[in-house]
TrEMBL record:
It catalyses: Endohydrolysis of (1->4)-beta-D-xylosidic linkages in xylans. The active site is at E280 (nucleophile). Keywords: Carbohydrate metabolism, Glycosidase, Hydrolase, Polysaccharide degradation, Signal, Xylan degradation. This is Beta-xylanase. GO terms for molecular function: endo-1,4-beta-xylanase activity; polysaccharide binding. Pfam families: CBM_2, Glyco_hydro_10.
Length: 486
């Protein structure tokens, strides 16, 4: 294990992959505890957004507030069910991860990562270098150039290094330009000049060679002076050989004001050979929202989805929150609100249906009548199982099972069954609801891992007792269909 030094203390850097098993139980207890205590949320639709998105290799993401994940099971349920990508709303920002110099706090970021990983969600790391939500020790530190550079390097090294290999995209620098395309004044720009961006990109590449390196900003959705500034900067960076992989258009929009040249703008960035995503979509309405405003909002969501889906390099759309009542909008824009896909009662709004349809879902997925109005059976297909004994002692053992959906459609709920032939008895388990009747063991999805995209897999595990011999189960069935065993 690599050791890093902070102010004289040696702190083991947790290699997250290595400790995934250790944290899984704790994270599960937290999320599941919340999920079990509150009443189950209403189903948004039988085919969640993520299933349709996955079918076209598209990412549909949401910003997730960790406090809501932990304390609101209806929120956590929607987060898990509907989205195949996730961004931490606040918990990876500088003020959260390094509130004082060299003192790192990853409690929120780790909880977010655990949730995203348990739910097979692609993670956007947000954000490393930003003038906002920046602790005062950085902003008002009066550092020299070289000191500030090393403050920035230490921060990037610690944060991006901790999640190396686990974050698909890093928003390396956020909101670096003003509306007129000039550089925004910040402690980074004022002290280091414009090169702080290239430096931060290179530092992140070093800390996590696998992550894609992105810039991100608001009001760059259409073609304007600010998005031109990014267009020029990206070309400069490319000419200098600085790694740059993508640009995030935040898209904090006003109802009825989707820029008409959104798709053209996405296309011009894609034509530079980088990726594009809509990273923080919300569409705010003057409150109270009327029915016609909610219809307009649905059209706006649809327009944004269509623009991204139309361009090859546009990898996905992330909404900045899930339910209206937790959105940052009412706190930030006086008198405005209702900007998201679900209302305060966790019910899908017209905007949800618009996104669903843009992804290829039918508008009435939730009450399909193609089978006479009955419930659709969960789609099933070939499944693959790998079973292993992770640990064994004289009277018991820990078993691990990876279930892969080898079918061509997503699973919406699953039961895995197998038989123990040696009298083994499950004592407890994780990442599934475990039960045993005689020799037959059933593991059913929890509230948050029922949806498994085609090709996706779920890791589950258990402890069991045995009385001497511990033969492995010979066959497994998923939703009644037998699985291949590797
Ligand atoms: C917002 C969060 O949603 C709020 O909870 C927080 O108080 C302030 O920041 N652009 C960004 C996001 O890049 O990080 C911001 O998120 C919204 C604007």
């Amino acid at each position: 294990m690599r050791l890093v030094r902070h102010g004289g203390h040696e702190t083991p850097r947790r290699t997250r992959a290595g400790s995934a098993r250790r944290v899984a139980g704790a994270a599960l207890a937290t999320f599941l505890g919340a999920a079990v205590l509150a009443p189950a949320g209403p189903a948004a639709a039988d085919s969640p957004l993520r299933d349709h998105a996955a079918q076209q290799g598209f990412e549909i993401g949401a910003a997730l507030g960790v406090d809501h994940l932990q304390n609101d099971s209806q929120f956590a349920d929607l987060a898990a069910t509907e989205f195949n990508a996730a961004t931490a709303e606040n918990s990876m920002k500088w003020e959260s991860t390094e509130p004082s110099r060299g003192q790192f706090d990853f409690s929120g970021a780790d909880a977010f990562m655990d949730f995203a990983q348990q739910n097979n969600q692609k993670v956007r790391g947000h954000t490393l270098v930003w003038h906002s939500q920046l602790p005062s020790w950085v902003e008002n530190g009066n550092f020299s150039q070289s000191e500030l550079r090393s403050v920035m390097e230490d921060h990037i090294d610690e944060v991006a290094g901790r999640y190396a290999g686990e974050v698909a995209y890093w928003d390396v620098a956020n909101e670096i330009f003003e509306g007129d395309g000039s550089w925004r004044n910040s402690v980074f720009y004022d002290t280091l000049g414009p090169d702080f961006v290239a430096d931060a990109l290179r530092m992140t590449a070093e800390a996590d060679p696998n992550a894609e390196l992105w810039l991100n900003d608001y009001s760059i959705d259409g073609i304007n002076a600010k998005s031109d500034a990014y267009y020029n900067l990206i070309q400069d960076l490319q000419a200098q050989g600085v790694p740059i992989d993508g640009i995030g258009l935040q898209a904090h929009l006003i109802n009825g004001q989707v820029p008409g040249d959104l798709q053209q703008n996405i296309q011009r960035f894609a034509d530079l050979g980088i990726k594009v995503a809509i990273t923080e979509l919300d569409v705010r309405i003057d409150m109270p929202a009327s029915q016609s405003e909610l219809q307009q909002q649905a059209q706006d969501y649809r327009a944004v989805m269509d623009a991204c889906l139309a361009v090859n390099g546009c990898v996905g759309v992330t909404v900045w929150g899930i339910v209206d009542k937790y959105s940052w909008v009412p706190d930030t824009f006086e008198g405005e609100g209702a900007p998201l896909l679900f209302n305060d009662d966790y019910q899908p709004k017209p905007a949800y249906d618009a996104v669903h349809e843009a992804l290829g879902g039918s508008s009435d997925d939730d009450d399909d009548d193609d089978n006479g109005g009955g419930e659709d059976p969960p789609p099933t297909g070939p499944c693959e199982v790998s079973y292993s004994v992770a640990n064994e002692w004289n009277s018991g053992f820990t078993g691990q099972v990876t279930v892969t959906n080898g079918g061509s459609s997503a699973l919406n709920g699953w039961d895995l069954q197998f038989d123990f032939s040696g009298g083994q008895q499950i004592t407890n388990g994780w990442n599934a609801d475990w039960s045993q009747s005689g020799s037959t063991v059933t593991a059913s999805n929890t509230e948050w891992n029922g949806s498994v995209p085609a090709g996706g897999s779920v890791d589950i595990g258990f402890n069991a007792s045995h009385s001497g011999s511990n033969p492995e189960p010979g066959s497994f069935a998923l939703n009644g269909e037998s699985c291949s065993v590797s």
